[in-house]
């Protein structure tokens, strides 16, 4: 366990390698922050608060999301004191459950009531190949094309609103369109289209250290209950393993029993527990 009373500091480019090394200690659990660092390069280390010198002992990603990494109670105390002025910049806190809930316990008196607290979210991983174990795969699953942005946007927004409880944008959709377009351009959005509409969608939201984290899984309401999700997810996992990363992860709300059943049927197993505080 970390034992430190050192003040948190904003990291810089010189801390980049140490930040990556700390993320790699739990490559699956820390893939979100690892991916932001890998994609953004050394300059993105400035989005981290850290404890320790040349070898970091704990970190906290602070941007639109707050993500604690390798924090015990002492580190959470230090980070919470540093974060008290950040309330208006953040939309959520997420990550390993004990760290997230511990951080929120410290921040709630300063930040106020959360919109929602999801205290138990199984973080699941699959390392087996659907092809090799004979799981059915939907041949209709494919990468979305950039000219399908206007078809993918409603699916993405519908999924976000259902999951988070409020829409992903108010007024202009330009920032959200930019994000969705970026996933499509990167080859990280998978779809099934039927009759000029998207009926299934899944994104690779984070990619680093040989790990790909899937997010934004959505089945159109009119297509639910027809057995689409399981073979579609198998096809997504196989394509990701073939082209992006051998290990595939996701996390899901514990109360979402249909999703849990689907992911278990596609070979995902719980490896740790996440939590999310929606602000």
Structure, described:
The N terminus is likely disordered. The chain has nine helices and twelve strands. Helix 1 packs antiparallel against helix 2, helix 3 packs parallel to helix 4 and helix 6 packs across helix 7. It has a twelve-stranded mixed β-sheet, sandwiched between helices.
Any chance you could write out the topology, listing elements then pairs?
Elements: E1 9-10, H1 16-24, H2 31-40, E2 48-52, E3 56-62, E4 65-69, H3 73-83, E5 92-96, H4 97-111, E6 116-126, H5 130-133, E7 142-143, H6 149-164, H7 174-185, E8 189-194, E9 197-208, E10 211-219, H8 229-243, E11 247-251, H9 257-265, E12 269-278
Parallel strand pairs: 4-5, 10-11
Antiparallel strand pairs: 1-2, 2-3, 3-4, 5-12, 6-11, 6-12, 7-8, 8-9, 9-10
Helix pairs in contact: 1-2, 3-4, 6-7
Structural class: alpha+beta
Order of helices and strands: EHHEEEHEHEHEHHEEEHEHE
Secondary structure tally, helices: 9
Instruction: Give the strand tally.
Output: 12
Low-confidence parts lasting 5 or more residues at pLDDT below 50?
Answer: 1-5
Helix coverage percent of residues?
25-40%
- The N- and C-terminal alpha carbons lie at a distance of 29 Å
List keywords for this structure.
single chain; 279 residues; alpha+beta; 12-stranded mixed sheet; 9 helices; 12 strands; 28% strand; globular; disordered N terminus
